[in-house]
Amino acid sequence: MNAVLVSNANKSFSDHGRVIRALENVSLDIRSGEIFGLLGPNGAGKTTLISALCGLLELDSGSVEVFGKNVQTQRSEVIPQMNLVTGFAGLLHGLTVEDLLRYYSFLYPIKDREKAIEEALLVTNLVEKRKQMAYTLSSGYRQRFYIAKALLSKPKLLLMDEPTVGLDVETAIRIRELVSSLKSQGITVLLTTHYMAEAEQLCDRIALISDGKIVALGSVSELKKMAGKPHASLEDTFLKLTKKNLEEEEDE
Ligand SMILES: Nc1ncnc2c1ncn2[C@@H]1O[C@H](COP(=O)(O)OP(=O)(O)OP(=O)(O)O)[C@@H](O)[C@H]1O
Ligand SMILES: [Mg+2]
């Protein structure tokens, strides 16, 4: 079974009378157990798609299924299966890492809360920071905290919107190792990133999205072949495939 199946998703926003088509007939599947990359320029529709996937945003038309269940109509069955990591969540002041995880754990129906907290601290290498005030964490550790928080609910699908944005080289490497380790635990990961090397290293398959449309989908080597240059860098491939989409639009 696919972890995710998006069928003909459409979403428009209106901005001062102007219509923005954030998602235009988007269809894709994410296989169970893979790390799937969603890549595209700023404003391409990545966060919109992630929001639709986790039920935070209603589509105008089309559907999203997670592990065979419809996100809109079978919400209570779908939501416990997934969690979201974005770099832009807030931290509560005045609580230590450990206490804040305990606080968040009450969001979820967890049988053994303390065990889940220990596991989340361990997987994200936060054990030594457990007594530190959460709001004083550096960005890299803060990012680990968000991942730990998301892992509390033992998700089968983890949505990660730019998990390494703004991190230094070494911290980003650590977070990537962490993402790989999630895969080896059988967790399906959907990841957005603007770092091509990261996508190349981590992702089994990648969808390129531009102006709300999927312009290509495949493994890194398949994408390179689609762009007509099997030995080109992913960066060049990305530019070629996303630009092609723009050129087609201009021709219309
Ligand atoms: N609530 C909203 N109201 C109006 N327009 C919106 C809203 N949310 C998103 N948009 C617009 O939809 C388009 C897609 O935005 P989205 O945030 O999905 O892009 P993105 O691919 O995540 O970009 P980035 O790489 O910058 O994070 C953009 O043009 C954005 O301005
Ligand atoms: Mg975004």
Question: How would you summarize what this structure contains?
Answer:
This protein is of the alpha/beta class and 252 residues long. The chain is 37% helix and 27% strand.
Written overview of the protein:
37% of the residues lie in helices and 27% in strands. The chain has 252 residues and is of the alpha/beta class. The chain has one domain: 3-Layer(aba) Sandwich (Rossmann fold). α3 packs across α4. Bound molecules: adenosine-5'-triphosphate and magnesium ion. Magnesium ion is lined by residues 46-47, 161.
Topology overview:
Elements: E1 2-15, E2 18-31, E3 35-39, H1 46-53, E4 61-66, E5 69-70, H2 75-78, E6 82-86, H3 97-105, H4 113-123, H5 139-151, E7 157-161, H6 169-184, E8 188-192, H7 196-202, E9 205-210, E10 213-218, H8 220-226, H9 234-251
Parallel strand pairs: 3-8, 3-9, 6-7, 7-8
Antiparallel strand pairs: 1-2, 1-4, 4-5, 9-10
This protein binds adenosine-5'-triphosphate and magnesium ion.
